[in-house]
Design a protein that fits this description.
Length: about 375
């Protein structure tokens, strides 16, 4: 077989016309949201941004025009064609749409595999230099059992020379088009099987374990979890002592010989915690959200500030892993109130108390806290997004 041309044109055909009965959502799975972005859009973006891909054709259901337009908005190289009743029909119709200006190579990919990497695309394209078809595979590592209709194990299947097939599957355009035309209407399980049936040679390249196909809601949940990231934010605040007989710390009124000076209730610990959460999600600082120049916040309870930051976190699909306070002062003593402070913060945020830690320290008589001129607080927030 002659090698493919050194400057081959490469099209991508994304199959996204299915209804996804096993998925169970109100929309086909390819239009389900994944971390705030349509699953299909992630798929299309990976190919649209790849320098070796010249065009992307998407086989869609005739009823999905609006959803597809949202998924493809602003992406270069992407067009659509109506698919058929079955996957094999959709692929054939997509290939026919490329005939007017045929590429040298075509990659065929499931629209519900959004985690396609540039490296895998490269490996498939490179494999087509010496073969008509390229199939990305991952090794079978689990023991395989053949099970009868009643659930009884019949035999253990040797896993040597077995592999799990993925997409994108790559082909030289003319042979795969001819094979799909010849075997139109059959129920072959993937495009490599169509070329194999036509006598074409298919070789394998290493796939990618992260290249997950979403079939059920559980698949989407696992994929969403795999995309989570952990962030850490820190906050620091200081308030001076003033007139009064109590200070606010972690939402508690703690008796003292002085009060605190501040525009709000001057809860130095909650102010630090608010900044810590805002910092973890890149949402500025407490002064941007609650300007001291705004009379609306004069004397305000600081639990409002902390709850606002937490609500911003959860609105982004995030959660609080841990919130750690260090209160720095000579007086009042924090130890007798520590447990109540933990309970107070946990109640403000609606989280379990084991996610909150309150510590205290002094500066051994040094600095403004050592001279008992005020209180400082640090907070570290660990969040999962």
């Amino acid at each position: 077989m002659p090698p493919s041309p050194p400057n081959s044109t490469c099209a991508v055909l994304v199959v996204a016309a299915g209804r996804g009965q096993r998925f169970g959502g109100s929309l086909p799975k390819q239009y389900a949201p994944l971390k705030g972005e349509l699953l299909l859009r992630r798929t299309l973006r990976a190919f649209s941004n790849h320098p070796k891909v010249t065009q992307v054709v998407v086989a869609i259901h005739p009823d999905d025009g609006a959803q597809f337009a949202e998924a493809a908005a602003g992406l270069a190289k992407v067009t659509s064609v109506h698919g058929g009743a079955a996957r094999q029909d959709s692929v054939r119709l997509g290939l026919e749409a490329l005939v007017a200006s045929p590429p040298d190579l075509v990659l065929i990919h499931d629209g519900a595999r959004p985690m396609i990497s540039a490296g895998l695309i490269d490996r498939v394209i490179e494999g087509l230099a010496t073969a008509e078809g390229v199939l990305p595979v991952v090794p079978v590592v689990d023991t395989l059992k053949r099970v009868d209709a009643g659930g009884a194990v019949g035999e253990t299947v040797p896993r040597e020379n077995l592999a799990r097939a993925q997409t994108p599957q790559g082909f030289r355009f003319a042979p795969i088009l001819a094979a799909h035309r010849k075997f139109a209407g059959e129920t072959l399980t993937d495009d490599a099987a169509v070329l194999e049936r036509a006598g074409g040679r298919v070789v394998t390249v290493l796939g990618d374990e992260t290249n997950i196909k979403v079939t059920t809601m559980d698949d989407l949940a696992r994929l969403t979890a795999s995309l989570s990231e952990t962030r850490v934010g820190q906050g620091f605040d200081v308030h001076a002592f003033g007139d009064g007989n109590a200070v606010m710390l972690c939402g508690l009124k703690v008796p003292h010989t002085h009060g605190m000076v501040g525009h709000s209730d001057a809860d130095v610990a909650l102010h630090a915690a608010t900044d810590a959460i805002l910092g973890a999600i890149g949402a500025g600082d407490i002064g941007q959200h609650f300007p001291p120049s705004d009379p609306k916040w004069r004397g305000a309870a600081s639990h409002q500030f902390l709850r606002h930051a937490y609500d911003l976190l959860t609105a982004r699909g995030g959660s609080l892993v841990h919130l750690d306070f260090t209160i720095i002062c000579e007086r009042p003593k924090v130890g007798p109130h520590r447990a109540a402070m933990v309970t107070s913060v946990a109640k403000i945020l609606g989280v379990s108390e084991d996610r909150i830690s309150v510590k205290a320290t002094t500066t051994e008589g040094l600095g403004f806290t050592g001279r008992q001129e005020g209180i400082a607080a640090q907070a570290v927030a660990t969040v999962r997004l």
